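Reposting from the mailing list since nobody answered there.

I have sequence plus structure tokens for a pair of proteins and want to know whether others read the tokens the same way I do. The first protein:
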Amino acid sequence: MNGLLNGFFKRTIRKGSLEVVDAGGKPHTYGDGNGDLIRVRFTRPDAERNVIMMPGLKLGEEFMDGGIVMEAGSIYDFMEIIFINMKTDFPTRLMKFGTAFRYTTRRLRQMNNQLRARRNVAHHYDLDGRLYNLFLDNDLQYSCAFFEPGQMELDEAQLAKKRHIAAKLALEPGKRVLDIGSGWGGLGLYMAERCGVDVTGVTLSEEQHKTSNRRAAERGLSDRARFLLQDYRAVEGPFDRIVSVGMFEHVGVGHYREFFDTCRSLLTDDGVMLLHSIGRFDGPGDTNSWIQKYIFPGGYIPAVSEVIPAIEQSRLKVTDMEILRLHYAKTLRHWRERFLARRDEAKAIYDERFCLMWEYYLVGSELSFRYWDMMNFQVQLVRNQEALPLTRTYMSEAEERLRALDRQAAAPELQVAGE
């Protein structure tokens, strides 16, 4: 086995039971022997070298291309034992150098002007729509769900997320709402239907644009919910409310000031904005190189310490903040299990390599939220600090009202006797 790779496993794997079969067929055991055996086999010597030299990129690539094969346990089990055992700092000087280099050059990869932003969005969100139907909830919510106390299924938790966000926006009938990064329209349609507001959603995905407007028409909401294929920087206001869920991760650190300046200019003086984004507990960093290449080109998960200064410079005021811990880990577990249950259908749409790529994406993402320093945050912003009540009571009251409406909408229609 490659000496550096063997050294890494020896130093790192202290808990669990891992067996690594090298490219020559020789097994190597690591850990304390507790738990189910996880066995992984390297099929080529260069796969061993690639993984230890560039783990952030090559572990995923070798799994996709057959350089790594699971013989006992799954790729989730293999990565989990590494995540559990491995400290957040990197084990070799070479890896530390690579991380520092990527950090200093990250703005180049995140230069998301309007042309590049559209291309990056198309890479991920304009995949065949049938793929997302395989693992998302019925409303096609592709962002962190909100798991209230008790056992909640994915559809319930995604409904709770929409309810939670709508309550924080202090919506009233007739208010004009801008949804930046409106996805397949679920949140916008929910606000229009439940709260009687007028919604304009913007997306750069052609697939999402078509689906959103079709859904609005099917539900008779086209007069109150329209979705534009447009960059947020080209939108004309003003709006009473602005919401953005799962889009800020595509803005890029060099565009944060531009994002908040634009939002401020689009917001009425007594307007309210809610930003929902993935975040980092451990401060500024860089996007994993495999994720950057295969899943979210141009994307970056921000630290709160990078976001707040841009908000302050734009002269917006933070009126509320909430950290959602582990909610996304639970969301991603649902997505992964649902995807694997319908993996054959995904393979029929694309191919085996794509399925391996998508599984690795869901696995790595879930483990990052479960064991490392990833979370979600929601920040409420205003131009005028008198725009909202002084206490958070209005949020819980609005959430309870919406919960009652959600229950009413879910209840089966009463039948007249004899029908």
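The second protein, same order (residues first, tokens after):
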Amino acid sequence: MKKNKLSSPIQLIRLIVQIVFFILLPGLYINAFAGIREIYSGVIHQNFSLRDYLPQLIGVIAVVPATIFLGRFFCGWMCAFGTLGDILYHISRRVFKISFRVNEKADRVLKYIKFIVLGFLVVVVWSLGIAGFASVSPWNAFGILVTFGKLPDFSYAFTEFTVGVLILLGIVVASFFIERFFCRYLCPLGAVFTIISRLRLTKINKPRQKCGSCKVCTNNCSMGIPLYKYDKIDSGECIYCFKCVSSCPRNNAGVGVANKEIQNSVAAAITVAFISGSYFTGTVVAKTVGTSNESNITVSSDVSTKPASSIYKDGTYEGSGIGFRGATTTVSVTLKNDKITDINVVSHGDDAPWFNPAYNSVSSQILSTQSTDVDAVSGATYSSLGIMDAVSDALEKAKRE
């Protein structure tokens, strides 16, 4: 008799974990991908600073090591975007009775698209530094609209992320028909995880000699993996949703770590605990580092000689700009002899993991170049722009009439 996978204890536990992470850490996948970008950009440009970018690397520290050694549990259990896909597909099956399956060969080919997306981002956006793609990211649009405790700001999302919102809507529609549509075919972070998870120790085992002609596990696989072909699932596409284990009528599918069988709940608990512990430990450390980094940043150039034609009045002036999701960023800017000598944050409404690295980088660049037209920090574009606008506003107030 076929098992009811929805009432399976492991599926109920997984659902609870998904809901908790969706509420508490909906942007963890964005943080992880932005962190990977920072590491890559820092390495190729030889300017990576662990201290300055630690807040942005929390997601990487929490998620990537767990994925390398234990597999893509994050995708199946903790990714808010994946949870959204699961919810939409469940609604389509239970409410609208939609039944649609992608041909196995077509599915295999379509899964290469996410590697093309990743390659485009690495070569065009990361390596060449071509800006303007933040507004087309469905992740950014999702992050704007889905923040627990706040109403979705549709007006701001459509204004600032028009293309991203349209792509997100397309993904939502596709997710009603194809389970984990974005995860299977478009997710660049999923492409990274598909590659690095091939080294994992945790794998699904299912000896085919006990399966007969049964394909229940394949029919229930969230990622469309043809499980009936394998005794051991080595595919990097596996997200450890354990639907194959829950639905197997012969109790033939199980979880193994380094060739030793363990309970699937134990494997899941270890991974969730590792990622959660790493994230919150990293947050505490980053907050400590961020507090020390928020001390005054002062320009070291000579300001003793007053220019013949002065543009700004000496003194300290406050200015404001709009950061992430319309939050206000206020800074104080100190000027002497037409030079910016000091920049301090008075207040901001952005999240610390994004704001702190933006402040450290943008402030340093402004002080060294004496210009507000500097590079934004990847993954913290709107926090960066808010700081630039705030400094520009302060300079306008300091101008001589």
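Reply #1 (J.P.):
I read it the same way you do. Strands lie at 202-205, 232-233, 254-257, 260-262, 297-298, 315-322, 328-336, 339-347.
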